[in-house]
Design goal:
Elements: H1 18-22, E1 38-44, E2 50-56, H2 58-61, E3 66-71, E4 101-102, E5 108-114, H3 117-125, E6 128-133, E7 150-155, H4 158-164, E8 167-175, E9 187-193, E10 196-201, H5 206-217, E11 224-227, H6 243-255, E12 259-262, H7 265-268, E13 278-286, E14 292-303, H8 317-320, E15 325-334, H9 348-366, H10 370-376, H11 394-405, E16 417-419, E17 422-434, E18 440-447, E19 452-455, H12 465-477, E20 484-487, H13 504-529, E21 543-546, E22 549-552, E23 561-562, H14 563-569, E24 574-581, E25 596-608, E26 613-624, H15 631-650, E27 681-686, H16 710-722, H17 733-736
Parallel strand pairs: 1-12, 10-11, 14-15, 19-20, 26-27
Antiparallel strand pairs: 1-5, 2-4, 2-6, 3-5, 7-15, 8-13, 9-10, 9-12, 13-14, 16-17, 17-25, 18-19, 18-24, 21-22, 22-23, 25-26
Helix pairs in contact: 9-16, 12-13, 15-16
The structure holds dioxothiomolybdenum(VI) ion.
Length: about 750
Amino acid sequence: MSTTPASIIGAPTPRIDGPLKTTGAAEYAADFHFDRMAYAVPVGALIASGRIRSLDTSAAGQMPGVLLVLDHGSIGPLYRTVPNDDNATNSEVRAAFEDDIVRHWGQHVAVVVAETFEQATAAAAAVKVDYETQQADLHESLDGFDGKRKSVSKRGDPDSAFAAAPVKIDATYITPNETHNPIEMHASVAVWEGENLTLYETTQGVVNHRAVMAQVLGLPVENVRVITRFLGSGFGGKLFPWPHTAMTAVAAKKLGRPVKLSLDRRMMFSAVGYRPRTEQHIQLGATREGKLLALRQDYLNVTSQLDDFDEGCGEATPYLYSVANLEVTSGLVRRHFGAPAPMRGPGAVPGLFALEAAMNELADQLNIDPLQLRLLNDAEKDESTNQPFSSRHLRECYETGAKKFGWEKRTAAIGSMRRDGKILGWGLAGASWVALRLPCTATVEFCANGRLCVRCGTQDIGTGTYTIFAQVLHEKTGVPLDRIDVILGDSALPDGPMSGGSLTTGSVLNAVAAGADNAIKRLQQLAKDTEGSPVQDAELEDISYTAGRVHAKDKPPGDGAHFAEILAMARLNGLSAEGKTQPTWEDPKSKGVSLHSYGAQFVEVEWEPEIARLRVSRVVTVIDAGRIINPKSAANQIAGAVVMGVGMGLLEETIHDQRTGQPINGNMADYLMATCADAPQIDVTFLDHPDPAMGEYGARGVGEIGLAGVAPAITAAVYHATGVRVRELPVRIENLLQSHVLEA
Ligand code: MOS
């Protein structure tokens, strides 16, 4: 059925929505404006734990332009979502306005709505809240936790095997609280028509957002519509709804006017999730030759007073290496912070920091090259489930990366490598991330105006989802890209997946392809049934479709008719067909296999001991994520993730005031992130082996894997350059000042 000689699948394709973004025509949630629209500004709690004794809105209520002030006493009923409801995943609506308890600093305790944003901001500052403050638990350290632990994965007898192992690593690794900082801040615009609510939202999942808001507001799901045409990223912070959406919807209903609420950057640090701090105790036991005998990981992560958010640091541990004796255990530590949220590579990214850092320490202790140690312990099958891997080329990632990086030139001694008056440190680590196909429905329509349209209730977080829809359609139908309309970001469309977990690409492709195949079949049938069509009354098997034209199999496409002509003859405005993706857990080809992506990260740091300056100068990253649909946007994802990895390794950390729970560095000046100036030279390679378990295209998705393994490769490189072993991120200048490598 393919009509293009050189396939667009796998061709570097510029984003089809690029011009809309660069000209400012793309409408993000906060860009939507409506007549008579009012502006809402939340009031955040100034304590971390306690009770609201009184909340005085009288001054605020009399300020110019103020229309409405809501708090827990006046908002009216908001419902909880059904626990473990697969159709509705929520963050922390329960903490908003349900009662008078304060569970974290910045928790919304009131919302002020006014004619203008400035008036609402001024009035929000005039709301007086009197608190009965209680002792808050804000300890950063999780040391001393003696609560319940759960067993995540177990095989063999890890305790005895570790005790008997001739070589051991036994260390604790810490990753800090980190805050999502997408360029676009969270926003809601709520518009009611009678009992029907439309929400213009910053969400990574319009379908889930609709389901949650229907439950929270007590509406039939049919009455709620969620629209997210464009997203300025999210990193996971926009996966699940936050309380401000419900506040906006209720305010709009009460006022009978559209209401817009846009969080500011400061609120982004306290009200919409974070990657929780993790403390991971790793024990590795090995032979003197480096063969793993035992692997234990016990991880703790912070969660809020209400949530049971498990960071899942043991995600990759059970299958990454071959080891007979293994156990992963975990525990949740409650603090008076808000609810955590998934953040790019939740679980595996902090988990692999600990595991891969420990493997690098083991290599150093054994005097074995860390690359050799990985290859020696590579797994042939998933030893946690006894399943074969669907497609695993981790070894090739390492070997390809080593060649590109020049790894064989590495000399092992600390501080032994120099260039241009600087000391070089070289480190590496492995990467892994889960792969799945979620259910997805897409409809493909041949339109009378000669255009082809695809509709799906997923959304483009900014990674290029619009473009891969167009690529698949172009490949299937031969219709040029500029005549394809991709319509996403609306819960009224057929149900599509969240933009999360790196699952979107793998989940949508099969539905789009099937939709196109089905639409072509329907078009051929229509051509056969339509009076005046060049293939009228022909046998179906004698009818072909080529690049938008239907024609007799034994005649050239030029002798047939374009779909627009056939639709005109049939007096139809359009002809559409549906395609569905079968989720991996229902597909016989994928439900018995271990499905993951892999990668290898090679990092070079430059160290100038005289001025204690460290810089990540070069990263080679090799990714095995199945077939790559669009190498241009995919490489962009990986390179962006590597830069984020530099931030994770050297910069990012949210610090809380121990008296109030307020983030001390809760703004973009004080919360350090990697910028262009911190970005190393980055070399991205895709192995591009299609994964047979992922369906026709064999693609697994690339949003998160590029971040995995960067931080432990950085700390290994730091050790190689400075001799300082840093087990707590981020690496600080204070750590490096302990280096005994004193000059370059
Ligand atoms: Mo991602 S943390 O699944 O948005």
